[in-house]
Amino acid sequence: MMDINQIREYLPHRYPFLLVDRVAELDIEGKWIRAYKNVSINEPFFNGHFPEHPIMPGVLIIEAMAQAAGILGFKMMDAKPTDGTLYYFVGSDKLRFRQPVVPGDQLMLEAKYLSNKRSIWKFECTASVDGKEVCSAEIICAERKL
Known about the structure:
The protein has 146 residues and is α+β, with helices and mostly antiparallel strands. Helices cover 18% and strands 42% of the residues. It is built from 2 helices and 6 strands; from the N terminus they run αββαββββ. The mean pLDDT is 97.
């Protein structure tokens, strides 16, 4: 549905902080997105996040979910960062980690729109590997004009 070049139009992040590799499905009317991140041993965070037992840091899993939610929000508004709008991650509710993410995993990211009040957007997000949920949270983002 969206390759990395299209994703880069909707997310201002760049290496090493762009954490969405592809959007597999996007339903603007249904207000949900499914994207993924291929987790490689070549990720810079594995050098220090347990070199002998590499696992993806939980905060980066949360960030990947927030980036997928950001793409959904931009698409719903029919806007891009170049239009002068950004989403800032401002919080999460109901955060749960269930199992580690390791090199070789494909992290599936799903976000569903919940609400938007006074430029505060809320999304229900999950991350899974091989059909098993590894993380879930309600992600809260603030829409800001530059």
